[in-house]
Design brief:
Length: 86
């Protein structure tokens, strides 16, 4: 069970990394592009279906993707208490 808890913590770091990189433009061929591609490969299988099910929140002229926030809440409020009891 400890390995699953560590994997969940690492996945949370990956989600945060993806969110932070989404704030910056990633130019093709840069070193950041490889990191961005890797983070997308790890998170898109979970965030993609969530994004299709949950509409983005319109804020002024932009849209806020709520799927990473909801996934983090699910991990910390549902999965971690069930899998990683203290």
């Amino acid at each position: 069970m400890e390995i699953i808890c560590i994997a969940l913590q690492l996945y949370v770091v990956v989600i945060f990394g993806r969110v932070i990189l989404s704030w910056f433009p990633v130019s093709p061929g840069s070193a950041i592009e490889g990191i961005d591609t890797f983070l997308r490969m790890l998170t898109e299988p979970v965030l993609g279906p969530m994004r299709r099910a949950i509409p983005s929140l319109r804020v002024g002229g932009m849209a806020l993707d709520l799927s990473p926030m909801i996934l983090l809440f699910v991990i910390y409020l549902v999965i971690v208490p069930l899998v990683c009891p203290r």
